[in-house]
Each structure stands twice: as structure tokens, then as C-alpha cells.
Amino acid sequence: MPVLGYILFFTLLGSIGALTGGFILLSREKFALKVSHYLASFAAGVLLASAFFDLLPEALHEGEEMGINVFFWTLMGILLFFAIERFIHWFHHHEEYHEHEKEGQSTIPLIVIGDTVHNFVDGIVIAATFLVDIQLGIVTTLAVAAHEIPQEIADFGLMLHKGLSRMKIILVNIASASAAFLGALITYFLGSFLESYIPVAVALTAGFFIYIATSDLIPEIHYEKNRGAALAKTALLFLGLAVIWLSLSFLEHGT
């Protein structure tokens, strides 16, 4: 099989593997709707852990030799998402949305944008490793799928919590996952030209995830009036952190 065939096949495999947990969650929609507001707290922990345990260390490692200021681009990611959310709120205000509808509808595009950029970067990483070595590419694909599974479960639950229908969630996530193919194909055809921009894209994604977690998800825990529910949501935030940290530690020692 040619290298491009390996890249496309394993990018598809990685995307399907990452989405599997979310599809399983949606297959039990009634249960998922009941726990969706708790999964939003779990999502906050997953996003923060992905940013600080995975994306930022990767960006620093890749960007150090290139002289890229990773923290500058992370800050730009946070500010860019702030500007995007302000625009969404402004647009919805002029469309006469109610306040709680504005909150839900503005968070969803942020999640989709963040996931799409992340999937695009994953496609770049998968393709780049296959160009170096087939076996390394396979291991990388498995690692990408493994650490994406808890994030996709959290995102599916979060979208349910924000009022998206099951079919829309499936379509949105499939469209977002397809960005991995775009990243993989661009990397295959452009190669070294794109490689120098990977740390910037990774740092921007980290900024996106930090903003979503701290601006849109964590405040929901603070505003929870039921003490028992607030405690459970806080515990789930830390569980999200632990799941990503443990999965990354396992993958690191496993490879």
C-alpha cells in the first residue's frame, strides 16, 4: 500500500475510534440527557487537561527549536475566541434571542471550532509520522484515538446539554472529524512547509480549550444552587483532568 493510502486509512480509523464513545453515549439518549449537565463539567476538566498536559507541552517541544513564542499564540487563541463569542452574542442579540438561548448557542460554535482545529492538527501529526515511518504512524494513530475518546464523549454530552439534537450532534462531529483528512492531505503534499506552523496551530488550540473551559463551562459549576450537584460537578471536573492525565501517562510509558 502506498504511503498516502496508509495515511488516509489510519486517519479514518483514528477519527472513527475517537467518535466511538460519543456514538455509544447517544445510543442511550434518555440517559445522556439526564447526565448531560454533569458531562459539561467533565468536559471542562478534559479540555483543561488536554491544553495543559498535552497541547502546550507538545507546542513547547516543537516550537522551542523554531523560536516560536508558544504562550503568545496561546493567549491569541484565548483572545480570538473571546472576540468570536462577543460577535456571536452580538448577532444573537440583534436576532432577539433570549439570554439563556444566547449562552447555549454561543458555546456550541466555540466547541465546534476548537474541535475542528484540533482534528486538523491531529491529521497533520498522523500524516507527518507516516512520512517518517509506517510503524510510527500506526502507533501515533492509536495514541490520537485513545486520548480523543474521553474528549469526544464530553463534547457529545456538552452539545446535548446545550440543546442540540442527536442528528445535529452526529453531523457536526463528522464534519469536524473530516478536518483531520484535510490536515493529513495538506501535510502529505506540502510536507516540510507546513511543519513549521504546527506549534502555532497547537498553541492556538490550547488557547481555545482554555477559554471554553474557563469562560463557558466552569461558571456553570459556580452558579449551581444545589450543593450536592455542585459537589458532583466539581468532582467530575477533576475526574476529567485525571482521565486525560492517566491516559497520556499510559500512552507515554506504552510507547
Keywords:
mainly alpha; 10 helices
Task: Quickly describe the structure.
90% of the residues lie in helices and 0% in strands.
Structure description:
90% of the residues lie in helices and 0% in strands. It has 255 residues and is an all-alpha fold. It has one domain (3-248). It is globular and about 55 Å long. The model is unreliable at 93-104 (pLDDT under 50).
Rounded to an integer in angstroms, the radius of gyration calculated over CA atoms is: 18 Å
Number of helical stretches of at least 4 residues: 10
Average pLDDT: 78
Proportion of strand residues: under 5%
Low-confidence stretches: 93-104
Spatial gap, N to C terminus: 25 Å
Count of spatially separate domains: 1
Quantity of strands, as a count:
0
- Order of H and E elements: HHHHHHHHHH
- What overall form do the CA principal axes indicate? globular
DSSP helix fraction: over 70%
Let me know the largest β-sheet.
none
How would you classify the helix and strand content by structural class? Answer: mainly alpha
